[in-house]
Amino acid sequence: EISVDAFYGCTSLTTIKIPKSLEEISVDAFYNCNNLTDVYYEGMQKEWEAITVYNGNDNLTNAIIHYNS
Length: 69
Description:
The protein is α/β, with parallel strands linked by helices. It contains two helices and five strands; from the N terminus they run E-E-E-H-E-H-E.
């Protein structure tokens, strides 16, 4: 899990690598991370889609997702 407000307002965050084992991204974990452009996910697209992503994570979900990275 990535906790509530984990990266809240982290404007210097441009990329992040997410492990295949992740199951949940809590509310506002990536809120106001306006420069986040690339997410490197260790799993496949279908596995990414199974992750529960709560509200306030538009910067994450609007970034380019690179699968099997």
